[in-house]
Amino acid sequence: MQPKKLLFIINPKSGDNDKSYLERQIKSFCAKNNKDYAVFYTTGQNDLEKIKERQSEYKADTLVACGGDGTVNLIAQIVINSEIQLGIIPLGSANGLAYELEIEEGVVESLELILRGKTISMDAIRINEEFICLHLSDLGFNAKMIREFEESGERGMLAYAKAFFSSLVDKKTNEFRIDFNGTQQTIKAEMIVLANASSYGSGAVINPGSKLDDGTFELVVFKPIPLRDLLSLTLESFLGDIKNSPYVEIYRVEEARIYCHEAELLQVDGELKGDNKEVKAEVLKGAIKVIS
Q: Would 125 be classed as within a structural domain?
């Protein structure tokens, strides 16, 4: 369905780029294509409720997330299980879901795609009956790296790289019990990923063969990795060959429970959700209509 009435939600703090030009580009593009539109800027204060209120007044058929994965996730919470479409203008530091959907980072290119792209009904993962994951969530190493990144106050891929190497110093192993597909396993791991997608925004593939609309998600378990093998595992991930690593196990599931021996930091689509000793996850099939 081609959008007729669009509400653009702009996160002015996402990424490291200047967004002063963005509203002018939106105005020019919508005028050229004879589209009704409105703009909403997030502030970090009660954004979800404020956007819902604006949408109830404006009644757009398409909500456009202008920001990173956190902004996309915020809008998904509004359009989930509805006929409202989700459009994306990727302006964050990593833009993982946009990368997965092969959405270009240029504003004009993203706007063209929103008007002329196709709409797919993609899955989501509901976590602990509270959070919605569209892309990747995890417990362990990556969540701690995101905390390091946020505490640095820097933005962009270089800041992610700094946080990655800094987090290597403190990488730890935890014991987990995971229940899935009628089985139960107790494992030691440095990270467990709840993967609806195949790769992080950096391009590192951790879930080869994943599909956003297959009605399942994957548990990706990273076993303890000796430092001497970390470089080769990193290279394998960028080559999409991680499934052959002896340090990685991948399980396709529709729901799962993870019990942590020690509470682990959880991140959902790049947003930290605190320490958790138990995580429940279930797939929501075809819950989000996204333009790609």
A: no
